[in-house]
Automatic annotation (TrEMBL):
Signal peptide as annotated in the record: none
One biological process term in Gene Ontology: response to molecule of fungal origin
Name the record gives this protein: Fe2OG dioxygenase domain-containing protein
Domain Fe2OG dioxygenase: 190-289
InterPro entries recorded: DIOX_N, IPNS-like_FE2OG_OXY, IPNS-like_sf, Oxoglu/Fe-dep_dioxygenase_dom, Plant_2OG-oxidoreductases
Metal-binding recorded as keyword: yes
Keywords, in A-Z order: Iron, Metal-binding, Oxidoreductase
Protein family: Belongs to the iron/ascorbate-dependent oxidoreductase family.
Cited Pfam families: 2OG-FeII_Oxy, DIOX_N
Keyword Iron: yes
A Gene Ontology molecular function term of the record: 2-oxoglutarate-dependent dioxygenase activity
Domain of life: Eukaryota
Amino acid sequence: MEVLMSNWSDVQSMPESYVFPPDKRPGKHIFPDCKDIPTIDLDKAEGLNRAEIIQQIIKASQEFGFFQVINHGVSENLMEDTISVFQEFFGMPAEYKASFYSNDINQSCRIYSSTLNYHKEDFHYWRDNFTHRCHPLEDHIQSWPEKPPRYREVIGIYCVEVRKFLLRILDLIREGLGLESGYFEDELSKIQLLSVNHHIPCPDPSLTLGMPEHCDPNLISMLHQCAVPGLQVLKDGQWLGVEPQPDAFIVIPGLQLKVISNDLFTSPKHRVITHTKEARTTIGTFLIPSSDVSIEPARALFDTGNPPVYRAFTYKEFFSTFTSKGCDAANALGCFKKKLE
Ligand code: OGA
Ligand code: NI
């Protein structure tokens, strides 16, 4: 069977290798939508309401672990063009996409399906993923696709704009946490990764997932969803649907922000369910620390009454522990917790 599902045509029934064991299936249950996702109006952060917006972001990061942002500064045209460029890319001929196919995490621009363990896993997730690095642009753009013809131009501008947006959010978080100016700049947000999920229509969404439940291991994530629903977040033990709002970005603090905030922030579990009728394309942008920078609870966020929860570690150390623990966030974080004295 062709590995990349974006090359399949007209799927009428579930291929057996995508049917999960019964205890892992999402089931037929209709999941309620999350009604009260905190929405941040970023325009207001530049005016008299700045302190209020900062408090909203800090509260959402503590209680919900994610929020959506409107008036984020990236134009609607650019957002739409970006989604359509990726839809065109996934629709390119199989031979063209094959030139990017790789399961090697060290290959900086690659397409693959399900997980990087495709050939070893017991069942497959219902997705193709295309991913590459983006910053600094001039170091990476040569490895990006040349087709569709506007790929490099549109995605180049998009990556620069989204980076500015995420750095603005990080700066508001920094101010809200009382950390020194520039705290998240440079090494802690050095790597920018684009990760695009594409799910074709699925004959039976009750039997499979488009992405496993997980927490994002990076510093911070941004998701730009097309109009087709699928993202779910675990809140108070219940899976809730995140209804796409095409003009908004979803922001999720990653596990490194949870550590730096000394567990003030939550980094919620989320997953993706599939859709019977429509294909879904979601663009994720992740800011990730450089491999060797030291990550630890910020000095301003602990004292004798509230000691640091984690010891210092490097992102390289964290990421290899995270993958060796099967991407289980609680297990991985547990390895870096300080022993109580
Ligand atoms: C991710 C992620 C969700 C989505 O890429 O980490 O959670 O909706 N994506 O594709
Ligand atoms: Ni995620």
